Amino acid sequence: MKRLSPESAPAGTPRRPFGPQAPVGIVHLGLGAFHRAHQAVYTQMVDDAGEWGICGATQRSATVVEQLRPQGGLYSVMERGPSQTRLEIIGQIRDVVDGRTETGRLIARLADPAVRVVTLTITEKGYRSGPGGALDRLITGLGARAERDAGPLTVLPCDNLNGNGEVLRDLVRENLSGDLADWVENNVRYPCSMVDRIVPATTDADRAEAGARLGAQDAGLVVAEPFRQWVIQDDFAAGRPAWEKAGAELVADVAPYERRKIRVLNGSHSLLAYLGALRGYRTIAQAASDDDLAQAAWRLIEQDVAPTLASDGLEVLDYGRTVLERFTNPALPHLTTQVAMDGSLKLGPRLLGTIRDARAAGRMPQGAVLGVAAWMVYVGKACQEGVLPLDDPHAQALREAVARPTGLVESLLGLDLVFGPDLRDDQDFRTCLTERVAEVSRQPVVKTA
Ligand code: NAI
Ligand code: CS2
C-alpha cells in the first residue's frame, strides 16, 4: 500500500510547503500523539492565512521524524466515538526536527522572529529533564533569540501539571542570568493552559483500519476520542492563532480548570488504571465498566474531590459524570498500563493534592487514599512479581523501596520524591492507607487479559 503523502492524499487536502525552509509560526517541543490530536488540530481549524505552521521537535526518539518526514508532515487523526469513527488529515506540521541530532536547526527555529509561540507536551517527567533535554533546548533557544533580539515570544505548556506556565517560567529563570535573563523577563510570557482529549498510543490495528479507510498507509496516525477542551490563559507576548474560533476558551485564570481536570479526570483515571490493571483489565473502558471500580471512581469525585473545589466556582459533579462516561468508550483501547505510567510524578497533582486539602479540613478522603493504595499495590506487584510493567522515571528508587523489609506502605511512604513528611507523619492517614492496601491486595483478579 502506498504511503500517505501530499501526492497520495485525498483530493482537497491542503498542499503546504514542508521542510527546513517551510515558514512556521509555532515550534512544538514533545511532538507526540497528544499534540497531533489536540493543539495541531485546533491550529489547523483557524490558520486560514497559513502563518501558524508548526515545526515539531522530539528529544527522545527519531520515530516521529521517521513517521512524518516521508509524509510531508501529513498524518491523520482517527476519531473513535462509541458509535462512529471519523478520519481527518492534518497538514499543520510543516517541519519535524530531531532535537538530539539536529540541534542547530531547532535552535534556529526558536530564534526565528517569525516564530511567536512555543508549545510543549514533554510529559510530567520532561520538566525534570537534564542536559540535552527539551528544557535545555528551550533555554538555549531563548538565549539565541535574545542574542538576535528576535522579538517577543510566548511559551505555552500543554502538559497535565497545575500551574504549568509558572512551573516552566521558574525552571527557565533558574537557568538564566545577566543580560539574557533580563531579555527573557522582558520578552517572554508563560501562560498556563488546561488541555483535555483522551489520546491513547496508536496500535498496529489502528494503522491497519486507517489504511483501509484512507487507501494509504499513515505511519503518523493518532487516535482520539471526539471530546476535546483547551482552556488557555490569555497572556501572549506577540499574538497567537485565533484558537477560540476552534472552541478554545481564553480566560484570565486557568487554575480552577486545571484543578478540576487534573483532580477529577486524571485522579479517577489513575485510580481506575491501577485498580483495573490489578483486576486484570487491559483497558480503561473495561475498568470503568466494572461496577465496583466505577463506584470507587465516583466516590473519589463526589466525596473527596468536589469539596476541595467548592471555592473555585466551577460545576464538578456533572463534569465528573461526563468524564466517567468518556472513560467507558469501548472504541478507544486506552491501556490501563499506559495511564499507570509515571505514577511517582502523577500521584501528587492527581491524588495527593486532594488528600492534603481534605486532611487540612479534617476529612479522610477514602477514595483518594484508595487510589494511592492501588498505586502502592501495583508498584509492589510490578517489582516483586513482574506481572505488571513498571514504567516510571523513578523505577529504581521504587524497586529499592519495595525491596526493603519495612513493608510496602512504610517503604513507599518514605519516598520524599512522592510523599513528604506531612503525609508520612499523619497517623490517621497511614492507618487508612494501610487498611486500603490490605483491601486492594485482597481484590480478585476478575479478568485474565
Ligand atoms: P507520547 O508518548 O506520544 O509523546 C510524549 C512526548 O514527550 C514525545 O515527543 C517524547 O519525545 C516527549 N518526552 C517524553 N519524555 C520526555 C522527557 N523526559 N523530556 C523531554 N521530552 C520527553 O505522549 P502523548 O500522548 O503525546 O502525551 C504527552 C503529554 O501530553 C502527557 O504526558 C500529558 O502531559 C499531555 N496530555 C496527554 C493526553 C493524552 O491523552 N495522551 C491528554 C492530555 C494531556
Ligand atoms: C492520562 C492522561 O495517560 C494518562 O495519565 O490520565 O493522558 C489523560 O488521557 C488525559 O489527561 C486526558 O485529557
From TrEMBL:
Record domain Mannitol dehydrogenase N-terminal: where: 25-245
TM region positions: none
Recorded catalytic activity of this chain's protein: D-mannitol 1-phosphate + NAD(+) = beta-D-fructose 6-phosphate + NADH + H(+)
Keywords for the protein's UniProt record, in alphabetical order: Oxidoreductase
Renumbered residue ranges of the record's region Disordered: 1-20
Mannitol dehydrogenase C-terminal domain location: 253-439
PANTHER family named among the record's database cross-references: MANNITOL DEHYDROGENASE 2-RELATED, MANNITOL DEHYDROGENASE DSF1-RELATED
Protein name (database record): Mannitol dehydrogenase family protein
